[in-house]
Design brief:
This protein is mainly α. The chain has one domain. Helices cover about 80% and strands about 0% of the residues.
Length: about 260
């Protein structure tokens, strides 16, 4: 009875917990999470400080009138820029997660054990995602929140910051799922790197040509986050819904492709 239940209830998740723990350990068992938290905090907070204090001072020195010292007007584009940086960062950090294991035989070794192939994809998404969300979004955005509060001389609305962090978490989740899905379709590192980065860079221009795409592509999340940060208003929930949907589709596609792949 129990054996039958095991066979029928977990054909896609066998070994998931152990695999996810293995992936998470690459972040949490050593100092990697501290290093990345520091690096990403410096990047994001440094960029914000540049926009709030350095750039206005440079413009003033050049005789260009700044935006009347209005911090909100200065930082309104900041989340859009952060979304692009985070998306590219996730692609660069994660493009080899599955590819390298396929090339060095680790994946074949793992699958020789009682492990379901779809569980490999889900485990990487959950385990690596935990480290990415903490070190690329949560900790750096807390530092950004402190810098924003310092810039305006009072506490920046924490609900606005929390909402933006949630949107950035979706950016991380989607691009991690995208890289994993691509890694099951091709063994070309160039393709796995280039396609997501080109999409990130070209998205604004494409949306400008076809405005309706704003509501159905994940690359609209930066604009959504910008309004959330300054006004706390969700201009459209469709990009959020679409991103969740695309992320699930990519994970399912990656799992199905790996299930059929010849290793």
């Amino acid at each position: 009875m129990s054996a039958a239940v095991t066979r029928t209830s977990s054909p896609w998740t066998a070994g998931l917990i152990n695999l996810a723990g293995r992936e998470a350990a690459t972040w949490w068992s050593g100092g990697r999470w501290r290093l990345h938290s520091l690096v990403w905090s410096v990047i994001l907070a440094g960029l914000l400080a540049l926009m709030v204090w350095v750039l206005p001072a440079v413009l003033e020195g050049a005789g260009v009138q700044a935006a009347d010292g209005d911090v909100t007007a200065t930082v309104v584009q900041f989340p859009e820029l952060v979304a692009v940086i985070v998306a590219i960062g996730v692609v660069l950090l994660c493009h080899g997660l599955l590819l390298d294991e396929r090339r060095n035989g680790v994946l074949e070794w793992l699958l020789s054990k009682p492990v379901a192939r779809p569980a490999v994809i889900l485990a990487k998404f959950l385990g690596q995602g935990s480290g990415l969300l903490a070190t690329v979004v949560a900790i750096p955005w807390l530092v950004v929140h402190l810098v924003l509060s310092l810039a305006i001389g009072e506490l920046w609305n924490p609900l606005h910051s929390l909402a933006v962090a949630g949107v950035l978490a979706l950016v991380v989740a989607f691009h991690l799922a995208l890289v994993l899905a691509l890694s099951t379709l091709t063994s070309s590192r160039v393709v796995i790197l280039a396609l997501p980065i080109v999409a990130v860079v070209a998205a604004d221009g494409l949306i400008g040509v076809v405005p309706e795409l704003f509501h159905v592509v994940p690359w609209s999340l930066g604009a959504v986050a910008s309004v959330l940060l300054v006004e706390g208003v969700l201009i459209s929930g469709w990009p959020i819904v679409a991103t969740v949907g695309w992320t699930l589709v990519l994970l399912a596609a990656g799992a199905a492709t790996l299930q059929r792949a010849e290793l």
